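## retry 2 of 3
previous attempt timed out at serialization; input unchanged, resubmitting
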Amino acid sequence: MIDLGPLRTALFVPGTRLDRVDKALATAADAVIIDLEDAVPLAQKAAAREAVARLLADLDTRKIIVRVNGTHTAYFQQDIEQMVCSQVSAIMVPKVESDEDVASINAALLQAENTKGLQPGLLPMIALIETARAVDNISQIVRADTQPARLYTVAFGAADYTLDLGIEITGEGNELQYARSRLPIACRAAGLEPPLDTPFMLDLKAGPGLQADAMRAKQLGFQGKLCIHPNQIEVVNRVFSPQPEEVQQALKIIQAFEEAEAVGQGAIQVDGKFVDYPVVVRARKVLQIAAAFENE
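## retry succeeded, writing output
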């Protein structure tokens, strides 16, 4: 399976607006998602799919994810057949609700990989969790046993989730707390990468609402956030990246602990704070994430 690396930001581009792909790739987004689902009217599904396939054939670039249409639509099979290629880094599938869905997606991907002469299991899958049933089944979804392993992580889609429940998205996000809390825990327990949070749709400007929303997701264990406008990228990248003071503190913790460990101590204080092995593991994780983006 392709390793997508840390994903702080994944920017959507409509499958009907491929003139925006180059602009999206020029941003600081960690990945670009070409969308064949919600952003494409029903009458334009086939034309958009053909246009995206032609575009992909000419691309030689960084992470491209394609969001196909769902398994229960008439478009899914052809989407998979045409989008599976060496230029795509992952397939995102909407409205995944069960481990059976994961299995059927894996079967379709295996068939397409075989047809295209690609290594079986090469393309990772990102499952969108967008309904009450999906949230209720999240532990089954993330533990779906496919051969080869296919599920990379999941992403939360709050627009369809709140539509399903008949509720509204608010600036405080209290209505999303339960679903958001379950996804990171399930991913961690199943050994998957941390999930991606829902786009912030209340305001496309990079204001305090976006920053607060991203911070809530980070605190719950998400690795990053889906974005629907380039304006959102800088704020979200900053929230999900270790700050210089965090990096310096992590270095200080590791150095002090290693010195203490060498003389037989397994717990110390650094700047008045308790430090033991879990704290050191977290400090090393901070440095690992920082190193992934040090050339920005």
